[in-house]
Sequence to fold (320 residues):
Amino acid sequence: MAVYTFLDVAKDTIAESKIPLSETEMWEKALEMGLDKKLNSTGKTPWKTISARIYVDIRDNENTEFMKVGKRPTKFYLKELYAQENPQDIQKKVEAAEKKETTEKLKLKERELPPFLVKYLNEDIHFKAFSKTIYHESSSRRTKGMNKWLHPDVVSVYFPFQDYEAHTTSLQKALNSSRVKLFSFEIKTYVDFSNLREYYFQAVSNSSWAHEGYLVCHSIASDADLLDELRRLNNSFGIGIIKLDTKEVAQSEVLLPAKESTELNWDTIDRLASENQDFRDFMESIKEDIQLGKVKNKEDYDKILDDENLQKVYHLKIGI
Fold:
């Protein structure tokens, strides 16, 4: 029996879709068609493997079945299908598909995404955090532009006493040492090249005070060049990237980890606390819980909704 390969995945998904596809679109289609089960692979980024195989095939095989169509994002098509259609019709189909995809992604607004993120942050092994949504309208009225890019959307705290024994946390306190970690998150519904730098540097500005800062994306354009640019920015400025999955919150993932700062920016923390009541309440709750050695009242933080209630929000907004 012939081995089923990533090139077979590419060919089958494009043939089924009858439209040029990016690497991530091919993998999403492969999952939909159940083709992932035919592959003998456990790689963490199969879409990258797909594009790598196609690039090599186009470069080295003069009889390749594939061709590149467009840039940003680069999409791939089958030469056989391309020969049967008018190039202008192909482009119209691509544009229609992209417009439909973007419309779907924008149905959930930024203000509706925090509950999904809060659940993920509480249950994910890296964060294990309690969170609070920061509402900008609870800030002091200031001169226009003074508070721009000051407030994160969600802030979170990890308490070591969730993992350590009581005698360990007592010793930490005696030594004036703490493993409490603060996180900051800027949430966006859709990121592509048109808004990438604005959104990323908004996250840089909003999260400079925390141990770790993240840009959280509900959707990211299917573009290998975009991901490369995100990696470059991550290497330079340290803000991590989270892909938030509202259908299956547990499937959300850290695409690029944040660079951890060992020091907090107390000037910015003081500014945030003086300007915003939500952030001030968050810091007060942290102080009380550290002194007590446990989370005194979970209601001081955002409520963690169960899957059923979260999906009611998702289905209502998306219209499923």
